[in-house]
Amino acid sequence: MFIRRRRGWEIPEREVTPESAMLGRRAMLGATAAALTVTASRSAGAWELFGGAPVKPVALLPLSAPRNAKYDAGRPLTPDSEATSYNNFYEFGESKSVADAAQALKLAPWTIELAGMVKSPRTIGYDDLLKRMSLEERVYRHRCVEAWAMTVPWIGFPLADLVKLAEPLGSATYVKFTTLADPKQMPGLHKPWYPWPYTEGLTMQEAMNELAFLSVGLYGKTLPPQNGAPIRLNVPWKYGFKSAKSIVRVEFTDQQPMTFWEGLQASEYGFWANVNPAVPHPRWSQAEERLIGTDKVVPTEIWNGYGAFVAAMYSDKTKERLFA
Ligand code: MTE
Questions:
Q1: pLDDT value of residue 41
Q2: Which residue from 88, 182, 213 has its CB within 8 A of the most atoms of ligand 1, so it is best to mutate?
């Protein structure tokens, strides 16, 4: 049987909700949870999953952490309202306007499996994990393979700290991230042509690089579902699709992991996916990027401008498709 696979990035611009419409719908709600004051970033509305009961918006907790000034993005921040309303999260749909549908994401209890080539495989609760990590804020440039970009203040901790906690065996050479795939919460899972669950991978060396970051918040709040709550990856020298959202499993392996986008269309989306303006995507140029929330288009930089931190990792990989 012939199945037409829709390519991941073939999203017509007409499917994108106008930013003004999204902004007009936003309001702050008060609530409480645990010992903290809770604020919700989305207005109450008829969020209906599969035409069922309205879904209550996820309440966001205030979250503050000292900003690490070492990572200066050199650009103004993208407004919070834009970064949280223009998203890619295919589990909730193929348009940029997935924020409403993503409110169905059940965030507690949340556990993360530390699996594969580790001293002792185990599952750790999200709250437990957070108690062991020291949070910081980092402002990173975030460059999507679709040629748009944002500048976001993420709150989280270095991926290297999670790797140390997991105690991988010396023979592990890659880290594979698997994200939540629950068809009851995620309408996108019913599209069988995608290779669910969403997976991503890094080499151990990349995972230990100081820039690799696990985010649990942004703009002084816990992560909204549409941005990958409760925990997502940020690897700012790579295209945004490497930033796996809503991670449930971190596996250490000696095999290069197959990733969601590589599994879907290997000729267009490779394992490495490092940003390079000189290497076009097969269907469009990567020379420039559109800054979301402005009418500006600026030149893209190799390694997304983070070469001083990461270029040396690739000096011996001359035969790899590093920029696809
Ligand atoms: N993670 C999951 N689980 N599902 C996705 O569809 N999309 C990726 C990445 N992580 C995606 C994901 C893509 S294509 C991009 S560009 C970024 O998330 C977008 O992150 P943002 O919405 O926070 O800007």
A1: 41
A2: 88
